[in-house]
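new request in #modeling-help
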Amino acid sequence: SQTIHQWPATLVQPVGSPLSLECTVEGTSNPNLYWYRQAAGRGLQLLFYSVGIGQISSEVPQNLSASRPQDRQFILSSKKLLLSDSGFYLCAWSRAQGMHSPLHFGNGTRLTVT
Amino acid sequence: AQKITQTQPGMFVQEKEAVTLDCTYDTSDPSYGLFWYKQPSSGEMIFLIYQGSYDQQNATEGRYSLNFQKARKSANLVISASQLGDSAMYFCAIERKNTGFQKLVFGTGTRLLVSP
């Protein structure tokens, strides 16, 4: 069966510090991968998605970037965090042929920028 | 662009009763899909049920069913025989078909509280 791992679970970082959140998927190959962010009391906003190694698409301009160095690894990064980067970050995967295919989410990372 | 509206910020239901969580959507795509997810306090998003716009029958998954009314652009989630473990946030989402990947647009969610 497929599993998705996301870490760390919580993170407190000062403004201006770098960020690296990692996500890995097991039990499937060539998945579509996604990073979503959930602000407090809000729905989820798609940040990045990837259909293959090195292929990253950004949904919104922001202080963050994403990379996919391996087929089942997806990394969310920032060089300098802003207060507005605080939130709950969720990694997700779906089958490559995404029609009718639900997103499967990791447990999320709660990021607080102080 | 797609949009999901969930007008109920919070709902209360007694254990073993049924509850309906509202979702209306807006899209210009001729073909689309609708999802419901559950988010417990622990934070993970759990997929519950899917409805395709061309599906003839309403989707059902165990105690979950989707009341899909295409003309009204609504896709309400019905939970039968509520359990204490159903207390969580519930999100409705719409996908764009024919893209090969899941660019879901989520609503703001409804918090469901099940009381004994």
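bot summary: The radius of gyration of chain A is 13 Å.
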